[in-house]
Specification:
single chain, mainly alpha, 6 helices, about 60% helix
Length: about 170
């Protein structure tokens, strides 16, 4: 262990036992073999994300009622509804694509405000993905299997001595 950062001195997968799977939020590494209550965790994530989206919509409704009471006019009301709808759609799409490929960190940083406004879309994307798999499982599984294949290729030993190989004439 490094004293300064508290991280292991060797990076993940560089130990003699092969690559290690990257843990997923709420699932740890149970996504690899679908053990340790994987099904129950997926059901819990689906119910939790849908409940969070429903509560979020209720809170947004109260906020919208407050704007209506303030008497700001129909133009402002339409702008607010359009803003949340568009931002939620973009956040849904961005979150859904993030389950299949890694995002560019600079692009994510520039979209942070938009994604915060469209948080309902992100919650719904999480809900829909958790109906079929752990959110992000496909991406992590592809990366893990590739790392395992590369590790196996690096560690397999050749048979025979290459210098004694018969030469063709």
């Amino acid at each position: 262990m490094s004293d300064e950062t508290g991280t292991p001195d060797t990076p993940a997968g560089s130990a003699g036992d092969g690559p290690r799977p990257e843990p997923l939020r709420f699932f740890g590494t149970s996504w690899v073999n679908h053990d340790d209550g994987y099904g129950a965790r997926r059901a819990g994530v689906a119910v939790g994300s849908l409940a969070a989206a429903a509560v979020s919509c209720l809170i947004l409704r109260f906020a919208f009622d407050g704007i209506q009471i303030a008497g700001t006019g129909s133009f402002v009301s339409v702008l607010i509804v359009a803003m949340f709808a568009i931002c939620s759609a973009l956040a849904f799409r961005n979150t859904w694509e993030g389950f299949g490929k890694r995002h560019d960190p600079q692009r994510q940083a520039s979209l942070r405000g938009l994604l915060a406004i469209g948080f309902v879309g992100s919650l719904l994307a999480y809900f829909f993905r958790s109906l079929t798999e752990a959110p992000g499982e496909k991406l992590h599984r592809e990366e893990y299997e590739k790392a395992c294949e590369e590790y196996a290729r690096r560690t397999t030993r050749r048979t025979g001595n290459p210098s004694k190989k018969k030469r063709r004439r």
